[in-house]
Write a structure and sequence with these properties.
The structure holds 2 protein chains of 2 kinds. By secondary structure, chain A is an alpha/beta fold. Chain A has helices at 6-13, 40-49, 71-74, 83-99, 114-121, 152-161, 186-197, 212-216, 219-227, 243-249, 258-268, 316-325, 345-348, 351-361, 379-387, 390-397, 446-455; strands at residues 15-17, 25-28, 31-34, 59-62, 102-104, 129-132, 146-149, 163-166, 170-177, 205-210, 236-238, 281-286, 293-295, 303-305, 340-343, 371-374, 400-401, 422-425, 440-443. Chain A has 3 domains: 6-166, Aconitase, domain 3, CATH 3.30.499.10; 170-240 and 264-288, Aconitase, Domain 2 (3-Layer(aba) Sandwich); 292-464, 2-Layer Sandwich (Aconitase, domain 3), CATH 3.30.499.10. Chain A is built from 17 helices and 19 strands. In chain A, strands 5-4-3-6-7 form a 5-stranded parallel sheet, sandwiched between helices. Chain B has a single domain (6-189), classed as Aconitase, domain 4, CATH 3.20.19. Chain B has a 7-stranded mixed sheet with strand order 4-3-2-1-5-6-7. The chains are: A alpha/beta, B alpha/beta. At the A-B interface, helix 2, helix 4 and helix 6 of A face helix 4, helix 6, helix 7 and helix 8 of B. Bound molecules: iron/sulfur cluster. Iron/sulfur cluster binds at residues 64-65, 113, 115, 134, 136, 345-346, 406, 409-410, 427-428 of chain A.
Amino acid sequence: MTATTLFEKIWQAHEVVAETADTPAIMYIDLHLTHEVTSPQAYTVLRQRGLKVRRTDRTLATLDRSTPTDADQLFGKVPIRIESAANQIRELEKNCAEFGVELLGIHDPNRGIVHIIGPELGATQPGQTIVCGDSHTSTHGAFGALAFGIGTTEVGHVLATQCLLQRKAKTLAVNVEGTLPRGVTAKDLVLAIIRRLGVSGGTGSVIEYRGSTIRALSMEERMTVCNMSIEAGARAGLIAPDQTTFDYLKGRARAPTGAAWDGAVARWRTLVTDPGAHFDAEISIDAGTLAPMITYGTNPGMSVALGEAIPAAGDAVYAKALAYMGLTAGQQMLGQKINEVFLGSCTNGRLSDLEQAAAMLRGRKVAPGVRFLVVPGSHQIKLAAEAAGLDRVFKDAGAEWREAGCSMCLGMNGDLVAKGAYCVSTSNRNFEGRQGIGARTLLASPIMAVAAAITGAVADPRALLA
Amino acid sequence: MEPIRTIRSRTVVLSSTNIDTDQIMPARFLTTTTREGLGKHLFADWRYDAAGQPIAEFVLNKPEAAGCQILVAGRNIGCGSSREHAPWGLYDYGFRAVISSEIADIFRNNSLKNGLLPIEVDAETHAWLLANPGVELSVDLQTRTVTLPTGKSVSFAVEAFARYCLLNGVDETGYLLSQEAAIRAYETRHEA
Ligand code: SF4
């Protein structure tokens, strides 16, 4: 038998019809996650054609993007300020009711960002195919699931047939060896990987993250890494499941139990790339050489390690990006004044992110004039954080503690960065206008976000570690 | 869907590299629940000032851009968010093809499903197109070629099935529905 990659194993197990020169493969989808923004037009098509949702048992909906993080608006004490956002929420509620799709809605204790609740509920499992009308579906690859983003037309395909038309992707191995230095997080690692690959270096490929550094990461850290695979242009990111994965899933609401659990784990253990399997491309990274990273430009590949100067201007496009950011080539990011801080998103809005941030913030204050917004990734994370008293740490320091959602990651719900303001953000995209018109986003880890909040400038989190 | 065979049009050039879908269609316009009418928001933050007035220097606001159906963009157009609102907006505005040297995966896929032809050309042709805005091109999907005004023809790749669907106005949902027997057989095999 030829040695195969993890990607090929999952691919083969989901081929309903194999691909030919003339036709793409028909691939079966195990789990379809949906939300308010990229689904309404798909339901319209279903309705027009008189179709049903084929597998309501494999479809899960939640509200995360247009949804307010302000409790009064969320729970109806005051009307939702943005009328079109309110309408989109009502539309999803109506569609789910009509088509029999399970919705983790406003009052559901399991509501949250779609890529956070899948794993949290144990719905995300190794070896599955998972899709969602959202590019950060790559997050679920942390469990050894083949998970990728699709458009709304494809959301309609999956609702109607549970299948997608797909051409096989190329494979790219990212090998990371060594120990991450103190104060260097999974976020810094993935920013370094994206810088190395470039924002289109992964186009057409599924990345498999491998090596001792990856094996040593927790599930939450692995999700941070896989989440940003798309920022290198990759279709998906994958990490082979192991004991860390099984320990995370065991006992979760939708994970198998009893004999079914044992059978599942036995199957999941086979989900590894065979020794000697061929990847279309490979890169290697030495974790020991990495430092905390921060972006300075308008795509996630434009980052520096703390201490490095912003590279000299390349072409006109590069110059335009720096002009948008109000930064100059040769400048250090350390000491750059900032106005806002956002801690949250499907990249870094999980409990361990909040714990690390709170540990650094405890007993300290947010710098005067700095707005610090803390948004848990799910309602369960919010409850767990509150049970541990983390909300008090944030509030006592002067931060805002919000309800779960995507919030300022993409600013659809009215949580926006002011025009021209610098925002250190733990999210995944620093595109022009992503956090608000004219907003200047600096992507960084949760502890770097806290260091910035405390000092009012880009600061080295290593100096503040307990 | 309307079949596409040929497109004959002058080009509009946006030479920035890595034009992400947040630029093509900013998030605040994603609260819509229909596909229609997004053309007016296309490139909104580059196209309009704070008062909502067109910015004269932006290419789409120049008189020569009127009626152009082909957008030539810098390398790696369509990266970022999977929002199909980006190709919906481009189509609604009037574009029928996007040409670059590299096109991001999800955007390419979404475009093909909406009658917007994503065309990847070699770096040399791309550089020429960027340097010569407004030239008249003819695109033939049947032969998979773009013909430049210089008479030069360059070929491009399109996934075979997507091309078939575009040429014949076939919709993929219908094709997938016709595979019901195979889907059922798969489910029986895997859920026994
Ligand atoms: S947190 Fe941001 S990147 Fe993640 S799903 Fe929400 S909007 Fe998308």
